Protein backbone atom coordinates (compact mmCIF):
# COMPACT_ATOMS: atom_id res chain seq x y z
CA UNK A 1 0.00 0.00 0.00
CA UNK A 2 1.47 3.43 -0.92
CA UNK A 3 2.43 5.76 1.88
CA UNK A 4 0.09 8.67 2.60
CA UNK A 5 2.99 10.95 3.50
CA UNK A 6 4.07 13.52 0.96
CA UNK A 7 7.53 13.79 -0.51
CA UNK A 8 9.49 16.00 1.95
CA UNK A 9 11.24 17.86 -0.89
CA UNK A 10 7.93 19.08 -2.34
CA UNK A 11 6.85 22.44 -0.96
CA UNK A 12 3.35 22.38 0.53
CA UNK A 13 1.41 25.57 -0.38
CA UNK A 14 0.47 26.18 3.27
CA UNK A 15 4.15 26.07 4.28
CA UNK A 16 5.07 28.52 1.51
CA UNK A 17 2.33 30.91 2.60
CA UNK A 18 3.39 30.70 6.25
CA UNK A 19 7.07 31.17 5.39
CA UNK A 20 6.29 34.13 3.12
CA UNK A 21 4.26 35.72 5.93
CA UNK A 22 7.15 35.27 8.41
CA UNK A 23 9.63 36.84 5.97
CA UNK A 24 7.27 39.72 5.13
CA UNK A 25 6.72 40.37 8.84
CA UNK A 26 10.48 40.41 9.47
CA UNK A 27 11.20 42.77 6.53
CA UNK A 28 8.34 45.10 7.45
CA UNK A 29 9.70 45.37 11.00
CA UNK A 30 13.24 45.91 9.65
CA UNK A 31 12.04 48.74 7.41
CA UNK A 32 10.21 50.31 10.38
CA UNK A 33 13.27 50.14 12.71
CA UNK A 34 11.13 47.83 14.92
CA UNK A 35 13.58 45.47 16.68
CA UNK A 36 10.84 43.74 18.73
CA UNK A 37 8.95 43.07 15.50
CA UNK A 38 12.09 41.69 13.85
CA UNK A 39 12.57 39.29 16.77
CA UNK A 40 8.97 38.03 16.80
CA UNK A 41 9.26 35.46 13.94
CA UNK A 42 12.74 34.28 14.98
CA UNK A 43 13.58 30.98 16.66
CA UNK A 44 15.34 31.28 20.04
CA UNK A 45 18.53 29.79 18.52
CA UNK A 46 18.39 31.73 15.25
CA UNK A 47 21.65 32.00 13.31
CA UNK A 48 22.32 35.21 11.38
CA UNK A 49 25.12 35.56 8.83
CA UNK A 50 26.19 38.50 6.71
CA UNK A 51 28.18 37.65 3.59
CA UNK A 52 29.89 40.39 1.57
CA UNK A 53 31.84 39.63 -1.61
CA UNK A 54 31.81 35.92 -0.77
CA UNK A 55 33.24 36.40 2.74
CA UNK A 56 31.22 35.87 5.93
CA UNK A 57 31.89 39.04 7.92
CA UNK A 58 29.36 38.56 10.72
CA UNK A 59 27.82 35.49 12.38
CA UNK A 60 25.45 35.71 15.34
CA UNK A 61 23.78 32.85 17.20
CA UNK A 62 20.70 33.26 19.38
CA UNK A 63 17.90 35.77 19.63
CA UNK A 64 19.68 37.85 22.30
CA UNK A 65 22.82 38.34 20.16
CA UNK A 66 20.61 39.22 17.21
CA UNK A 67 18.66 41.75 19.34
CA UNK A 68 21.86 43.44 20.51
CA UNK A 69 23.18 43.77 16.94
CA UNK A 70 19.81 44.98 15.60
CA UNK A 71 19.57 47.65 18.31
CA UNK A 72 23.14 48.81 17.65
CA UNK A 73 22.42 48.98 13.89
CA UNK A 74 19.50 51.38 14.45
CA UNK A 75 21.99 54.28 14.72
CA UNK A 76 23.64 53.53 11.36
CA UNK A 77 20.88 54.76 9.04
CA UNK A 78 18.24 57.48 9.21
CA UNK A 79 16.21 55.63 6.58
CA UNK A 80 16.40 52.08 5.30
CA UNK A 81 14.29 49.82 3.14
CA UNK A 82 14.55 46.27 1.90
CA UNK A 83 12.23 45.74 -1.07
CA UNK A 84 11.71 42.18 -2.30
CA UNK A 85 12.04 41.84 -6.07
CA UNK A 86 11.85 38.03 -6.32
CA UNK A 87 10.80 35.05 -4.18
CA UNK A 88 12.19 31.49 -4.50
CA UNK A 89 10.69 28.73 -2.33
CA UNK A 90 12.08 25.28 -1.52
CA UNK A 91 11.28 22.73 1.19
CA UNK A 92 12.69 24.58 4.20
CA UNK A 93 14.13 27.75 2.64
CA UNK A 94 12.97 30.99 1.12
CA UNK A 95 15.39 33.04 -0.94
CA UNK A 96 14.46 36.65 -1.63
CA UNK A 97 16.22 39.02 -4.00
CA UNK A 98 16.31 42.52 -2.55
CA UNK A 99 16.78 46.11 -3.56
CA UNK A 100 18.21 47.85 -0.51
CA UNK A 101 18.23 51.60 -0.07
CA UNK A 102 19.29 53.61 2.94
CA UNK A 103 20.56 56.99 4.09
CA UNK A 104 23.62 56.92 6.34
CA UNK A 105 23.15 58.51 9.77
CA UNK A 106 26.84 58.31 10.69
CA UNK A 107 30.22 58.42 8.94
CA UNK A 108 31.42 54.91 8.06
CA UNK A 109 35.05 53.70 7.81
CA UNK A 110 34.49 52.84 4.12
CA UNK A 111 34.01 56.54 3.26
CA UNK A 112 30.20 56.69 3.38
CA UNK A 113 29.27 59.94 5.16
CA UNK A 114 26.21 60.87 7.21
CA UNK A 115 23.46 61.91 4.80
CA UNK A 116 24.86 59.88 1.90
CA UNK A 117 22.42 57.56 0.12
CA UNK A 118 23.25 53.88 -0.23
CA UNK A 119 21.79 51.58 -2.90
CA UNK A 120 22.57 47.85 -3.01
CA UNK A 121 21.16 44.71 -4.49
CA UNK A 122 21.50 41.39 -2.76
CA UNK A 123 19.61 38.44 -1.44
CA UNK A 124 18.60 36.95 1.86
CA UNK A 125 18.12 33.25 2.51
CA UNK A 126 15.71 32.33 5.30
CA UNK A 127 15.49 28.83 6.78
CA UNK A 128 12.64 27.55 8.93
CA UNK A 129 11.68 24.99 11.56
CA UNK A 130 8.72 24.74 13.92
CA UNK A 131 6.96 27.69 12.28
CA UNK A 132 9.83 30.09 12.96
CA UNK A 133 12.84 31.53 11.15
CA UNK A 134 15.91 29.56 12.25
CA UNK A 135 18.51 31.13 9.96
CA UNK A 136 18.98 34.33 7.98
CA UNK A 137 21.88 34.79 5.59
CA UNK A 138 22.21 38.24 4.03
CA UNK A 139 24.36 38.20 0.88
CA UNK A 140 25.59 41.28 -0.95
Automatic annotation (TrEMBL):
Residues forming coiled coils: none
Keyword terms, alphabetized: Isomerase
Residue span, SnoaL-like domain: 23-135
Superkingdom per UniProt: Bacteria
Key word Iron-sulfur present: no
MF terms (GO), sorted A to Z: isomerase activity
InterPro entries: NTF2-like_dom_sf, SnoaL-like
Protein name: Ketosteroid isomerase-like protein
Signal peptide: none
A Pfam family per the record: SnoaL_2
Amino acid sequence: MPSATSNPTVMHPDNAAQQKQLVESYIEAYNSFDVAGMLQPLHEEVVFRNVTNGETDLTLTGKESFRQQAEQALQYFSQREQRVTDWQFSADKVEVRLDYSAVAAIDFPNGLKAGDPLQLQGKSVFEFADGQITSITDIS
